[in-house]
Amino acid sequence: MLLTIDAGNTQTVFGLFDGEEIVEHWRISTDPRRTADELAVLMQGLMSMHPLLGEELGEGVNGIAICSTVPFVLHELREVTRRYFGDVPAVLVEPGVKTGVPILTDNPKEVGADRIVNAVAAAELYGGPAIVVDFGTATTFDAVSARGEYTGGVIAPGIEISVEALGVRGAQLRKIELARPRSVIGKNTVEAMQSGILYGFAGQVDGVVTRMAKELAGPEGDPDDVRVIATGGLAPMVLGESSVIDVHEPWLTLIGLRLVYERNVGSFT
Question: Would you please indicate which residues are annotated as catalytic (active-site) residues?
Answer without folding.
Answer: 114
